[in-house]
Amino acid sequence: MGFSIGCFNEFESVSQQSAVLYSTPGVAVASVRNSIKQKLTSIGSTLTVNNVLDRATTQTCAGCHQVSNGAALGGGLTWPSSATFVHVDEQSNLSPALTTTFLPKRKSVLEAFINDRCDASTPAVLAEGTTVGGSPEGTAN
């Protein structure tokens, strides 16, 4: 997100510590919290500062693998759960996050891409500012 958290430790590579929860009091400095609040207010968002910080946490190693499991992210969204820490266990079982969220979305994007571009009647053309899957650049996939 391009801002300083705590003592300049952005936690991107910390995979198992609850200390990477950005919404924990004292982790995100007051100026960061204030900036987020001002932006949310200016765009009329119903999200809270903690919703935004919790969403940022999901994008860290620890967030995706463990500390965000089942986290309420505001706007009716809940982060899907890993299989405790891993997404594929030693018996080859997939995590709920993979089976209910990540893989179905990737399947949908891939199918749309194939269906939109493999029909010989029209050449494939990507609109400027879109991804290969047809979503606007910068949106979640």
Word description of this protein:
Helices cover 37% and strands 4% of the residues. Strands 1-2 form a two-stranded antiparallel sheet. By secondary structure, it is mainly alpha-helical. It has 4 helices and 2 strands; from the N terminus they run αααββα. β1 (72-74) and β2 form a beta hairpin.
Summarize the structure.
The chain has 141 residues and is mainly α. It contains four helices and two strands.
Helix proportion of residues, in percent?
Answer: 25-40%
List SSEs in N-to-C order.
HHHEEH
| Overall body shape | flat
Low-confidence stretches: 1-8
Q: Proportion of β residues?
A: under 5%
Question: Helical segment tally?
Answer: 4
Q: What strand order characterises the main sheet?
A: 1-2
Count of distinct strands: 2
Sheet with the most strands?
2 strands, antiparallel
SS-based structural class?
Answer: mainly alpha
Radius of gyration: 18 Å
In whole angstroms, the N-to-C terminal distance is 17 Å
* Average pLDDT over all residues: 82
